[in-house]
Amino acid sequence: MSSVWGSKVKYSIFGESHGKAIGVNIDGLPAGCKLDMDYIRSEMDRRMPGLNKLSTPRQEKDEFEILSGYFNGYTTGSPICAVIYNSDQRSKDYEKTKYIMRPSHADYTGYIKYSGYNDYRGGGHFSGRLTAPLVFAGAIAKKILLEKDIIIGSHIYSIGDISDSAFDMADLNNETLAKLKEASFPVLDKDKGELMKKAILDAKSDLDSVGGVIEIGIINLPAGLGDPFFDSAESILSHILFSIPAVKGVEFGAGFDIAKMRGSASNDELYIKDGKVKSKTNNNGGILGGITNGMPLIVRAAFKPTPSISKVQNTVDMERHENTKIKIEGRHDPCIVPRACPVVEAAAAMAILELIL
């Protein structure tokens, strides 16, 4: 089982949802990087479960302990190891269904690949719980990027069929991203946000779940980052974004809608302002030929509905090799999208740091 990502900085996540702890090893950060603990905690708090009725009632404070690679407020150059102890597991919820595969989970694929030895409690190593150490690592990356004036933010682009306003792809600014970070439910249109909340609660009351899309914006990126083909900026970003549990689609700029345009509409015409080359539109999302062009980098990640729902579903019993039904118990998010904003930002920061170093 490989859980390592990155070449210039290597990130290795470990642990299981209902194990003693989860965590991350970060190898390759230069010595002398100041770690802002308050900033890291604020990022962790944005992802933390149990904050409101829109999320799982599982209570995890996501308090972290740095075991190595950190001394007197700075990185030492040796690998950083951070651990987050689990404190609110209810593993008994999974004992009676250990051989019954939950639909749209990794239960079946994990059972086959690891011959039944994988930890099935709460999804084990496949769980979204493992995004907590990603946020820790991403907070460090975001802070390093902030020192270079590179700013990353996001908002809930859609929940179900309800859509927020989109970022101004050609003129995204820091003020917009800063306001979103402070919001408990980050949207550009508050009225649409209220409709989204209602859709989540309606799905919850119906013993169901709902998915959505997060739009990420990255500003003040220099032109020239990335390489064509296999190490393109899109390739590196997509690789880590698709590593987030439940992400089923990634698009840049106008995304799939660009296929509906003519070239005269999709082409981003260039002009010079204050000595810098800019484009009037940004349908390509700030990347051309796999290389950043200095415009805001715009990327969206689509999340499927939470597969853990309380409705009765058809499935299979792997012990008895027969068809059966399942009614999933336990504590689950009716929609994981609101808590996923800091996760996709963290992943984006790790990818951009990979491009810059």
List the topology elements:
Elements: E1 4-5, E2 10-15, E3 21-27, H1 37-47, E4 64-68, E5 70-71, E6 74-75, E7 80-85, H2 92-95, H3 107-113, H4 131-146, E8 151-159, E9 162-163, H5 174-182, H6 190-205, E10 212-219, H7 233-241, E11 247-252, H8 263-266, E12 270-273, E13 276-279, E14 287-288, E15 291-292, E16 297-303, E17 312-317, E18 322-327, H9 337-356
Antiparallel strand pairs: 1-2, 2-3, 3-7, 4-7, 5-6, 8-9, 8-10, 10-16, 11-16, 12-13, 14-15, 17-18
What report would you give on this structure?
The chain is an alpha+beta fold. It is 27% helix and 24% strand. It contains 9 helices and 18 strands. It has helices at 37-47, 92-95, 107-113, 131-146, 174-182, 190-205, 233-241, 263-266, 337-356, and strands at residues 4-5, 10-15, 21-27, 64-68, 70-71, 74-75, 80-85, 151-159, 162-163, 212-219, 247-252, 270-273, 276-279, 287-288, 291-292, 297-303, 312-317, 322-327. The strands form 6 sheets. The protein has a 5-stranded antiparallel beta sheet, with helices on one face. α1 packs across α4, α4 packs across α9 (337-356) and α7 runs antiparallel to α9. The chain starts with a strand and ends with a helix.
How would you write the strand order of the largest sheet? 1-2-3-7-4
Low-pLDDT sequence parts: none
- Quick check: average pLDDT? 94
- Listing every helix as H and every strand as E from the N terminus to the C terminus, the arrangement reads EEEHEEEEHHHEEHHEHEHEEEEEEEH
Assembly classification: single chain
> Separation of termini?
27 Å
How is the main sheet built?
5 strands, antiparallel
Rg, rounded, reads 21 Å
* Structure summary, number of beta strands: 18
The residue fraction in helices comes out at 25-40%
What proportion strand? 15-25%
Class derived from helix and strand content: alpha+beta
| Count, helices | 9
| Anisotropy-based shape | globular
